[in-house]
Amino acid sequence: QMSNTIEKIRSNIVNTRVEIVGINASDRGRSCNKHQICGGIVKEGTVIRLALVSLVIDGVEEPAIEAVDVEGGCRVGFGRRHLIKHGVAYNGAICRVTEVLSKDSTSPTMRQLYTKTRVALSL
C-alpha cells in the first residue's frame, strides 16, 4: 500500500521544475578533493540525483534535500526548504539541469528573480 502512495506522489512531480540553491558554497559537504566548490561543475545538461538527508545546522538536526551530481557523486547544492514536506517524492529523483541562474546573469529579469545562484531542474 505504501509503495502505491509513493508512486502516486512521484507521478505528480514528473515534468516539474525544482530549484537547487547554494551551488556557490563549499560548506555542508559541498567540496571534495577534486573541487573546492562542487557546485562549480554544474552546467546546463548536468544530471542530478535528489536525496532526503539530515544535516546538523547550529547543533540542530534538520531534514534537507541534497542535490548530487550523478557522474561524479559530488554534493552540489540543496533543494529549497519548501520541498522538504514532499521529501519522500523527491528522494531518489533524477533531474537534468535546464538553467543555471545567477545575479550575474546577462538577463535583467534573471538578475531580479535570483539574488543567489540557483539551478532550475527538470524532473
Structure description:
It is a single chain. By secondary structure, the chain is α+β, with helices and mostly antiparallel strands. The chain has helices at 2-11, 87-90, 108-113, and strands at 17-21, 47-57, 60-69, 75-79, 94-101, 118-122. The chain has a 6-stranded antiparallel beta barrel. The longest helix has 10 residues, at 2-11. It starts with a helix and ends with a strand. Residues 111-118 have low confidence and may be disordered.
Task: Describe the secondary structure blueprint for this structure.
Blueprint lengths: L1 H10 L5 E5 L25 E11 L2 E10 L5 E5 L7 H4 L3 E8 L6 H6 L4 E5 L1
Antiparallel strand pairs: 1-4, 1-6, 2-3, 2-5, 3-4, 5-6
Shape: globular
The succession of helices and strands, N to C, reads: HEEEEHEHE
Structural class, by secondary structure, is alpha+beta
Please state the average pLDDT score.
76
Distance between the termini: 24 Å
Strand order of the largest sheet: 1-4-3-2-5-6
- The share of residues in helices is 10-25%
Low-confidence stretches: 111-118
Query: Largest sheet, described in full?
Result: 6 strands, antiparallel, barrel
- Helix count equals 3
Query: Total number of β-strand segments?
Result: 6
Strand content: 35-45%
Radius of gyration: 15 Å
